[in-house]
UniProtKB/TrEMBL annotation:
Belongs to the UDP-glucose/GDP-mannose dehydrogenase family. It catalyses: UDP-alpha-D-glucose + 2 NAD(+) + H2O = UDP-alpha-D-glucuronate + 2 NADH + 3 H(+). It is an enzyme of class 1 (oxidoreductase). The keyword Oxidoreductase applies. Keywords: NAD, Oxidoreductase. The keyword S-adenosyl-L-methionine does not apply. This is UDP-glucose 6-dehydrogenase. It comes from Salibacterium lacus. Gene3D superfamilies: Cytochrome c1, transmembrane anchor, C-terminal, NAD(P)-binding Rossmann-like Domain. Pfam families: UDPG_MGDP_dh, UDPG_MGDP_dh_C, UDPG_MGDP_dh_N. Residues 314-416 form the UDP-glucose/GDP-mannose dehydrogenase C-terminal domain. GO terms for molecular function: oxidoreductase activity. Pathway: Nucleotide-sugar biosynthesis; UDP-alpha-D-glucuronate biosynthesis; UDP-alpha-D-glucuronate from UDP-alpha-D-glucose: step 1/1.
Amino acid sequence: MNVAVIGTGYVGLVSGTCFAELGNQVICVDNVQEKVDRLNENEIPIYEPGLEELVGKNKAENRLSFTTDIGMAVRESDIILIAVGTPETETGAADMSFVYKVAEEIGRAVNDTYKVIVNKSTVPVGTSEAVQQIIEKQQPEADIDVCSVPEFLREGSAVKDTFHPDRVVIGASSIRASDMLEELHQPLTGQIVVTDPRSSEMIKYASNAFLATKISFINEMANICDIYEADVNAVARGMGLDHRIGPKFLKAGIGYGGSCFPKDVKALKYLAEEKDYHPSLLQAVNDVNEQQNRRMIEHLTRIFDDDIEGLTIAVLGLAFKPNTDDIREAPALKIIEDLDAKGANVQAFDPVAVDNAKQMITADVHYADTALDALKDADAAFLVTEWAECKALTASQFKEQLKRPVVIDGRNALDPGIMKAEGIIYHGIGRK
Ligand code: UDX
C-alpha cells in the first residue's frame, strides 16, 4: 500500500518505518527542512532502540523516504496518517492547531482518487469529524474517509510495541475505510478492534487515564504504607496476583511523566468539564501525581533539618523513564528546579538525555559522565530514573563516594535492607 505519514515525531517516525518494513511504500513528511535533511542522512532525531537500523534498511531498500512536500505525499498515497503533536495548552485542553493545519493542507492536495485519512495523534473525541469537515471545506468533492487509529506504543520499546501491539483499534467511518485499514494492520500481531471514530478516540484517552490511575493509586497506597510501616512492593505483588487487578503499572515511585499521561489526563478532564461534567477521579489522579514529587523532596530536606542551601545533591537520571532521551514532563526537571530554588547545587547523570535536559534546565547543573562520578563528594543522592547504570550502583559505592550517606530512591530501585546494613540513610517510597 502507499502510505503517507505526516509528522516525524515518536509516533510518526516509528509507525512510518514499521509500515515500510512490512512492505508498504511509505513517505514521511515533516515541515522542518533540517529534520528531513538529517533523516535523509540516516540521522535519527530521537533515541529509540532498534529504530536507526530499521530506518537505514528501509531507505536503502527504497520503501521509505522523507520530504517536506506534503502535497506530493498526499497525492501519491492511499492512506494518510496524521501523527503531529497535540501539546497541552494553559487550560489543559489539547492544542489542535497542528492537526487542523495538516487537515487544511491535505484538503488542498487531495485529488479524485479515494483516500483514507487516519488520526494517529491523541485527539479530543469528535476530531475525526472535524478533520473531515476541514478537508471537505477545501475540496467539497473529496472522496475521503477520516478514521481514528490511536497509537499505544511506549517510548523505549516503540518498535517492538508497533509490531506486537496488544490490540489495534480502528475507528472507521465506512466499511471501505475499515477494510483498507484492516489490510494495512493485518501483519501486526495484536487483535484488531473495529469501532466508530468517537469510541476509538475515547479508547485512547481512557486507556492512558486508566494506566495513570493505576500509578497514582499505588503511589497513594505507598504513602499510606509509609505511615503504617508496610512495604508497598509486597502490597503490589499481593494485589497484582489477582487477575482482575494484574501486576503491571503498580510500581510506586516519584510519579508518572512523559509526553502522554500528564497531558492526556488533563485533556480528558478538560473535555468532560467543557460539557459540565466534573471528573473528580481524574482530578485526584493528577493531584496525587503532582504531590508525589514534592513528597520526595520533603523526605530529603527533612533529613537536613529543612536546610539544604549550599549542599550538593547527586540527581541520578533525567529522562522521564529509562531507555529514552525524552525529558518532557520528567520528574527530574521539577526536582532540579526545586533543589536549585532551595539553594542546593546539583550534579546530574543521565546516559542519553543530557543534551535534551540542557535545553530545558535553567539551573546551573554540573553534568557528570558516569553515575559514579555524579556521587563524588555529594551530600546526598536522589535516584530519579531507574536506568540500569543507576540501579547497578552498590551500597558501598554510595557510602564511599557520598560525603553524607543519604540516598533518596524515587523509584524503589535499590534494596533498603542492603542500604541500611551499609549505614546509609535510605528513603524509598512506601518501604519499611
Ligand atoms: C504511555 C503509554 O504506556 C502508551 O501506551 C501511550 O501510547 C503513551 O503513553 P510512555 O509515556 O512511553 O507510554 O511510558 P510508560 O512506560 O507508559 O510510562 C509512563 C510513566 O509512568 C513513566 O514516567 C513511568 O516511570 C511511570 N510509571 C509506569 C510508574 O511510575 N509506575 C509504573 O508502574 C509504570
